[in-house]
Write a structure and sequence with these properties.
- The protein is α+β, with helices and mostly antiparallel strands.
- 36% of the residues lie in helices and 26% in strands.
- The longest helix has 22 residues.
- It starts with a helix and ends in a 6-residue tail after the last strand.
Length: 235
């Protein structure tokens, strides 16, 4: 009996250690989700996006609008831990309740070096203010462990903004626009760009509300999770 108890002691110790390890709660690592808080434009701006998308489609290029993505002007885009959505909704709703619709002009077509295509928006102090308010309100909720995009490291001002707010495109770096294409491969984009410079797209509209969307790698809304219109203005 003595020998048997000695032989089994290591096995009993191992079982005890396994039970102890299993009982220790492991840290949970919530996945991040990319959330875009954006300004909602009125119908004349959306119509201009549709018309420009038709020109691109004629040349074999399918815009985000043509793919069913909502037209939007990003106010603040960054990553959050999953489960932050309700807090973001409350903050954004509160901001929307304090604003009224305001004028906005879309004018001009731009193509970046990496073949992103945009409709340009005129600078608006009211749109800037809206972006600033949203950024200040919900940046404390962001995922502070989000990786810095490699391209941002080449721009000191944008790097500083990212490190503080989780986005390189806020405050003095805010440049409102409407994205049509990203990383377009078609050589016909140059033809469309030349055409658009000669016949500049133009529309007068308004910003009528704020939306919140779960976004993809291009900042486009995979799912709109909330919309708050100023004074019930949906036109």
């Amino acid at each position: 009996m003595l020998k048997l108890s000695v032989i089994n002691r290591p096995k009993l110790l191992l079982v005890s250690l396994i039970a102890l390890i299993i009982s220790i709660p492991l840290p949970s690592f919530a996945k991040s989700v990319s959330i875009n808080v954006f300004a909602i434009p009125s119908k004349p701006i959306i119509n201009l996006v549709e018309q420009t998308s038709d020109v691109l489609k004629e040349q074999g290029m399918i815009s985000f609008y043509e793919k069913g993505m909502p037209v939007h002007a990003t106010l603040y885009l960054t990553d959050y831990a999953q489960g932050s959505e309700d807090a973001i909704k409350r903050a954004v709703k509160s901001i929307a309740e304090q604003h009224q619709s305001f004028p906005l002009t879309a004018q001009g077509f731009s193509v970046s070096q990496s073949n992103w295509a945009f409709l340009n928006l005129h600078y608006s102090s009211k749109l800037q203010r809206l972006s600033d308010e949203v950024t200040l309100a919900i940046s404390p909720l962001r995922d502070t462990n989000a990786a810095v995009p490699s391209w941002v490291k080449h721009y000191p001002n944008k790097l500083t903004a990212f490190e503080r707010y989780g986005s390189p495109n806020v405050f003095q770096n805010f440049q409102p626009h409407l994205t049509l294409l990203a990383n377009e491969k078609s050589p016909k984009l140059a033809t469309v760009n030349k055409y658009m410079q000669a016949q500049e797209p133009l529309a007068q509209g308004k910003i009528i509300g704020i939306g919140i969307g779960i976004s993809d790698q291009f900042g486009q809304q995979q799912q709109v999770i909330a919309e708050y219109f100023f004074n019930n203005d949906k036109n």
